[in-house]
User: Fold this.
Amino acid sequence: MAFNKTIILFVFAFILTQSIGLGQGNYSFRNIVDDRTGFSPKYISDIVMDKEGFIWLASNNGLYKWDGISLKHFHHDSSDSLTIGGNDIHRGAILYDSLSERLFIGVDDELCFFDPVSETSENHKIKRNQDFSISSVFLDRQDELWISTSNGLAKYDVDKHNYTFYNYKTDSNFVSSDLVNNIRIVKQDIRNDSLLWLGTLSGLLRFNKVSGDFKLFNAHNYNNGANEFVLIVPSQDRKLYLGTWNEDMVVFNSSTNKFEYSVGPNSLNNDLKFPSALRPFLVKSENEIWVSSKKGIGSFNTETKQINILKTFKNRGGRKYEMNTGVYKNGVFWLGSEYGAGKLVLNNTINNYFLPPKDSLWFFPYGLYEDTINSLVYFAFSRGQGLHYFDLNDNSFHLTNGLNEIVKENAIVDIQYLDKNTLLILRINEIYKLDISKRFLYKVSGSERKDLKFSDFKIDSKKNIWLANSKYGLLRFDLKNKAFFPIKKISEYFKEKKLLPRFSKLSIDNKNRIWWFFKNYYGYYIPESDSLKVFDAEKDYFLCFYNENTDTILVGSTNNHIAYIDTHNADKGIQFLSTKLKGTTYSIAKDSKDIYYFLTSAGIEKWNRNNSKTYLFKEENGLVTYDSWSNRNPTTLGNLLKLSDGRMAIQYRRGIGLFYPDSLKNISEKFMPYLSNIKIFNKNIRPTDELDLNYKQNSITFEYSALALENSSKIKFYHRLSGVNDKWDASSFRTVNYSNLAPGKYRFEVKAYNQSFPDIIKNASIGIVIHPPIWATWYAYLAYLLSIAILIYSFYIFYYKRKIAQKEVDRLTELEEMKSEFYT
Assistant:
């Protein structure tokens, strides 16, 4: 087990090392447990994870189990010896032992061994003359269990269930025996297995496990608060990073046995002053420590002594608060505080960057264009107040010169490449040129045409500019003469139908046909022959084209099926594949490996045309699906663009997301449904493989959930009780009650599946036997039958004997009569 722990620590340190340099957009945070999920204590003091993946939250009100969906509470009950020994669990007073697969919990003066499977606790009271309480529990690399208490150090023999106590004896008038033996935390030396470091309320103790000797180190240059050590993080540099009760982080060098400096509000070095108490959490890398304060969670560079705050936390009233504890697993920090627990995901696949919100600007996403020479991405934003671009070199936003001085409201509809130094910018009723080298805009369409409302434009191989608009449907723009020419064939066709041809999107195929759509109509126009083909889309509605100038144009639709145009069979119109997406398609792009990406109302969907399956990526990969400022999904009507460096760009409302296609891995989501609670007449019973009940226990409530820490919002549940109803019932409440069940055999089943993987269905079940009352059992019925048979038999025997007796009487009577007649 010690070897496994070393490997885990190495992997842990390696993973954390990879997260150096986190910046804006490389993490996401959300609260997962708070008062809205049934959390009632004042604070979460510690967090551990068991081998199955359940999150266990220690608090001042007992123990909580979190599976990603539901929260279950375990607390002390004086009438039940199988519950935990107390409720107030301190930071560091809980750990998970992978060898015994139990939670070790120290609470008050009891050591509790909690079994997560049976949900029962084996409690051992520490018997000692003095009053004390447990502060922390620690399992060292030799699997020895150490307990820090308010009155010394104890070693617990798990096999023999006995304790060995150690106390520091002082003869100094300057050291309080009570305070120095009030040990808050225990850690093992990073290199010397025989040494333990103990944080006390009056200095730092070094304890030798072999000799039993103590050595006290006191930070004389610091105030009393700086000597109250409640956290210890040993680092590979042989230094201990010590968290104090409510003061500075103090650094102790275990090689020289000297305190070196402190960081915080009371630091003697002005360069190391920090406005709030700083607490070390975990080792991040060889020269970085994860730290927490009211300023937020971040890292402390042990070489430069700089603090980089990654994320600040605020309650609903806007007050900043700090995280008390945290556990790291697979790129996720599970953090605990006085307000509950949160999930901080590091190194998101998608890195997101946003413009600061402004009340007057909405930034509706219309299009993207990459300037490959200068590594810039230009945005077409409606209500964005100018032409914005994003510098890929330093991940910064900028505004071009020219357009924002000309008009106040800038509805930029689209951007198209004209030549190596020029982009055409389409505004809602004007066209501009952008000089790429000068990044300056010039108007090229003459006077503003308020009667025209452009929605898209494309440039064909002959440099003809075609515009979709709401009055004529399709226009050709003569750039040299700055003149617009309506396509009469289209306007006349829709005039006959008494419709305004409000064309929304255009695409020019490899045969120079101009495809368009609006509402439930779509079609194509051939400029060379001035001919028009119109299709009725009936109930379908189309939102985008994806055209690579090949024989196939992909089309985004509202019916979720992947749609396409075969340019060799244009008269068939838009056709549909059997492959179905999970949402309405807003935009389509393709990577260098011919894998397609669809930005849909469900998220980003990945599709290999050689495979009918699609894969959905959402929040867990870093996609932003909710913008609190606009109270909307920022990807709605957004756009995708493949960049020249191989990355994909997502145009959000007000921002951009960047990711490498290969980084979007198909998630093999591990989830498992289970029965979280069973009640008989509203009284909890402990988990078991099968319910064996009497006839009076015929009202059963089942509560169920699933272990799904990463993708919980996508889990759907169904249940049924075989023997009552074989039909599956859906439930979002994850609870069901069955009353007045007749004696018999039943099986309660839960079925769950992840919406991202609907083909993967997992089940959980439990058998139920309700025994009838003794008078309704088979042996009772047999007894009844035997009793009736005996009764019938007895009656028959009685009747038979009576009949025989009567015959005898009759025979004797007849004989007497014969005698009388003979003698007379």
Q: What stands out?
A: The first helix runs from residue 2 to 17. The radius of gyration is 39 Å. The first strand starts at residue 27 and ends at 33.
